[in-house]
Amino acid sequence: MRGDSLNVSIETIKKCKKNDKNAFMELFKQYERYLYKLCYSYVQNEQDALDIVQEVYIKVFKNIARFDLNMPFHPWIRRIAVNTCINHRRTIKYEAISMNSSDDEHQALEEQIAADTDVEQQIESIDLERIIKMHIDTLAPKHRMVMILRYYEDMSYEEIAEMLELPLGTVKTNLYRARNILKEKLADVVQV
């Protein structure tokens, strides 16, 4: 789910800044599915994802007063969610990140790797998506993270660098290496 489809009104955010419980409920209800899917994609565990979403809600509640109304809300809450996932992973040394989403918007990576599919190959494409996701799960965390943010969150290199607090060159290198590792793993499955 892209951020631009989650339109939170400035009025709702202003009410949240005044600790309006109904406004918080509205905000959290609107972001619940997005945050769960994002967190689940990092931790690949339903209970951990739910716990992280709760942590994100607490952080939003505690920090909404500092949110700048002149800035877009979605990147702010996404950054809180990603940082919370990273911290969670550091805390328990969790290695698995899943890509278990079947939304059409999340197929950019599959389409890049398996471009030129035609109608006859649609069934193979579905299987390929599952195989690609399985292989992404085996990537090192730094490679998995940039793949998720680039191809499933559709973030630019600059946005990824800012979010992960890494130099732009490191992000590009990690993404380049991740794609090459993935292509090697998929060499027997797909002609890339």
Describe this structure in words.
The chain has helices spanning 10-17, 21-43, 46-63, 73-92, 108-113, 122-136, 141-152, 157-164, 168-185. It has 192 residues and is mainly alpha-helical. It has two domains: 3-92, RNA polymerase sigma factor, region 2, helix turn helix motif (Rna Polymerase Sigma Factor, Chain: A); 104-185, Arc Repressor Mutant, subunit A (Orthogonal Bundle), CATH 1.10.10.10. α2 (21-43) packs across α4, α3 packs across α4 (73-92) and α7 (141-152) packs across α9. The relative contact order is 0.10.
Average pLDDT metric: 77
Uncertain parts: 1-5, 93-107, 114-122
Oligomer: single chain
- Number of helices, where a helix is a run of at least 4 consecutive DSSP H or I residues: 9
The separation of the N and C termini measures 28 Å
Order of helices and strands: HHHHHHHHH
* CATH fold assignment of the largest domain: Rna Polymerase Sigma Factor, Chain: A
Q: What is the 3D shape?
A: elongated
Largest sheet: none
Explain the layout of strands and helices.
Elements: H1 10-17, H2 21-43, H3 46-63, H4 73-92, H5 108-113, H6 122-136, H7 141-152, H8 157-164, H9 168-185
Helix pairs in contact: 1-2, 2-3, 2-4, 3-4, 7-9, 8-9
